[in-house]
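Field reference: sequence -> structure
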Amino acid sequence: MRNKLKAWEKENRLIPVMIKKHCRGKHKTKGGQVCPECAELTEYALYRLKMCPFKENKKFCSFCVIHCYKPEMRDKIKAVMKYSGPRMIFTHPIFALSHVTQMIKYKKKRKREAKNLDR
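Structure field:
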């Protein structure tokens, strides 16, 4: 069971890091602090992750067939990912590169599946 939850646990640790990075850059907070808006987003994202029905063998939320975030929170987390994602290469390079690799593989797989459906 431990190996099956490995991706989920990694995401559980990295979401707050990405939100802190976003808050420090966009909202100019100091130290490890986050603004109330980002604290709320962190709490919400971790709660949604905790309730995820796909904990075992979890991929990234952007790959998911269901979207469990409220539209407003989904827009906020997208902004966080868009800002923090490229900056993760400096603080978490292995995670960042593995994420890019997984995204490329997923998009190729989706393209192949779409091509097969057209036949």
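Note: The CA atoms of residues 56 and 71 lie 25 Å apart.
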